[in-house]
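ugh ok so i messed up the first submission bc i forgot one of the chains. this is the corrected input, ALL of the components this time, i swear. 924 residues overall. if the numbers dont match what u have on ur side tell me asap before i send this to the collaborators (the ones from the other lab, u know who)
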Amino acid sequence: MYQELKQACYEANMQLPKLGLVLFTFGNASVVDRERRVFAIKPSGVPYETLRPEDIVIVDFQNNIVEGTKRPSSDTKTHALLYSHWDSIGGIVHTHSTYATAWAQTQLDIPILGTTHADHLTVDVPCAPPMDDASIQGDYEHQTGWQIINEFQQRGLTPEEVEMVLVSNHAPFTWGKTVEKAVYNSAVLEEVARMAYLSCTLRPGLPRLKDALIRKHYERKHGANSYYGQS
Amino acid sequence: MYQELKQACYEANMQLPKLGLVLFTFGNASVVDRERRVFAIKPSGVPYETLRPEDIVIVDFQNNIVEGTKRPSSDTKTHALLYSHWDSIGGIVHTHSTYATAWAQTQLDIPILGTTHADHLTVDVPCAPPMDDASIQGDYEHQTGWQIINEFQQRGLTPEEVEMVLVSNHAPFTWGKTVEKAVYNSAVLEEVARMAYLSCTLRPGLPRLKDALIRKHYERKHGANSYYGQS
Amino acid sequence: MYQELKQACYEANMQLPKLGLVLFTFGNASVVDRERRVFAIKPSGVPYETLRPEDIVIVDFQNNIVEGTKRPSSDTKTHALLYSHWDSIGGIVHTHSTYATAWAQTQLDIPILGTTHADHLTVDVPCAPPMDDASIQGDYEHQTGWQIINEFQQRGLTPEEVEMVLVSNHAPFTWGKTVEKAVYNSAVLEEVARMAYLSCTLRPGLPRLKDALIRKHYERKHGANSYYGQS
Amino acid sequence: MYQELKQACYEANMQLPKLGLVLFTFGNASVVDRERRVFAIKPSGVPYETLRPEDIVIVDFQNNIVEGTKRPSSDTKTHALLYSHWDSIGGIVHTHSTYATAWAQTQLDIPILGTTHADHLTVDVPCAPPMDDASIQGDYEHQTGWQIINEFQQRGLTPEEVEMVLVSNHAPFTWGKTVEKAVYNSAVLEEVARMAYLSCTLRPGLPRLKDALIRKHYERKHGANSYYGQS
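and heres the new structure output, hopefully the right one now
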């Protein structure tokens, strides 16, 4: 019944080790089916080498397992909350990719320093602050979802404009209209994080990209008059 | 009609992922035909895995598409301006290679620190300063070409002596008599940028290469009495 | 007689170059047989490319060769001491993996900065201090074992809770209930060391992970109510 | 006549790209025949992908081409001088490997910080100071040989004890009793340089390895009572 959804989820997950974004089982991708209000997600702790499409778990937005014999990813509640609050997203990817995670460990936003970054988003990559202790001891992965949503709300960001976030002391989450875009964003974030690391250690205190360039590069790819790619 | 030109352009583009210089579609190579005053360039946003020789677009120096069904690279106007002003170059490569781009984000020239650098150029790798806001909001990619040409003029550099440049907050461009040389220069620039990053973070404020060594290593490869390679 | 033990040891050793943890012969893995009180270990200085299961050496806890025609790893006495003092461990891995070794060279613990680390241990990765000169000149590899055991005792750590250590100015050792877990820990340590290197050079003096998060992430994988992986 | 010597030289050169030590043609290996007082060396500027055993050039200690149709490496005179002054070495390797070259660009010795280094040499990796201008403008590659030999003499080092050197603002040279050992030393030097870079940027001003450990690790591999490897 969920054959196609599982297959799409499987293929997205298999891209993560291929792109060098995960070590062992440190990551997961999910795909949503908006009509049936369920999503497909990687099972917890299963190595990518042995993962099969039939291992993928189908979960609803209240975290109930709808289909599947394995336990879903331990990050499932974070995915569920993001899907239920953000109608526009079709897929979510979570990794512990090296440079993005190193930035998350510093609790700093990744400053926008160049056009590689500006081609994808017009603001710094936001780093959601550490959770308070009560939330951590409560429903932790559910609260991680709120941590992200609240941070976006406070900053006035939308998930359509900004398709990535760092969770302080943890790691990145990315998303997109499709899971393919979410996977793409994970790889872009890792590269943007790496370049920003290099620039910031080479010239501490360097200036952010000027506003005119931020707008220009974003419009090349995203504006009404975008002219990047094949239409 | 442009079969050979397209093939040469295709092969040059395919070298970029092989040399580890591009992620996804972040780069492009072009080849000029001086007699017909056109150049072949990668189509915009087409992944390297699916790129075919027949996808290559033929463009003239006024940015008109001469042949091809796809939209050319969004950087096409930069290529066109460089070809029309610099008669001696036969190919151009643009990448967002990691270390060269990190330097561009700092707005700093890459200082000449060793013979790996001096074997290829006798000055720091120039970093053209950020464009003024009016130019950014105008014909941006065309102005990027002027940004490079003006910087060379101000510094008294020629495109024969210096076959690479960083564009501030953006990324590198390289060129050469042939597109093969332009591709080679892209890989050399990335390695020179990496070594300089390491040296500068290990010993901030380190001295540049002494003049006698700069001249000597350059002459080994380029002077009238050059003795590097097979004659 | 020790066919299976040798095979298991061989396979664990062959994982080390595959995971990018060893250059040439700089590493070794061993597997213990608790009933017979012997362990299988890589022969000294044999390249991984030519290593065969029958080359593996069987050694007892007093460092006597029980079976095998080759000289065992020069680190054998360290392995023997750890096995004889720590009943719960089934395998040991020693590498000179790049980032973990770089930390060992600084004589600093690897601070716990994020959940990638906290998913595996709730304290900083301990760095055992340099040995005194008398011990170095004495039975050096045997003393290296004591250096590790004493450090754990002084810090009140157990080998079940903390399955990895850095030896100052030397390199890491990891272990686990099985040798597969010890190999896994070696790769995790290298990645944790790399992320911590990046975070610490990007933001010197950054804070450690808050206690509530440390406990939470550890319990996800290890506590009585753990919910990571398949049960 | 020099078939075997050429083949050995060819095989050593082909190891360099395989070990990740060279980009394009930035490196060369040579092998000496002490009886005939000639050495085999890579031709200049020939890519490794197309290099064939018959392309290798045979040169005597006075830099005369004895056999071969190609021009020998531009570094040939450095090799010749080292062979003629140091009787004990059988092969030489020159690369521009990234981390070793980055250290050479800082004009700093690589400090001995750990046992990975001490297993191979008991002193800092020496960095020969920049050449004076007269020597550069004279017989440059010949003078590079003197730069190395003089530095060893001033420091009281022998080429048997220390099989590697950095030439300031240039790059490393390594050697050994055999060319295989010289190749091995090039890879070891690159890894030692990388680890030292990481340690020094993580904890500037860190202490060198204590003397007792330096001696111990060196003796494990090299002393009269060495016990590393198979005897």
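quick check: The helical segments of chain A are 3-18, 76-85, 98-106, 115-118, 133-137, 140-155, 179-202, 211-222. that seems consistent at least. The longest strand of chain A covers residues 27-33.
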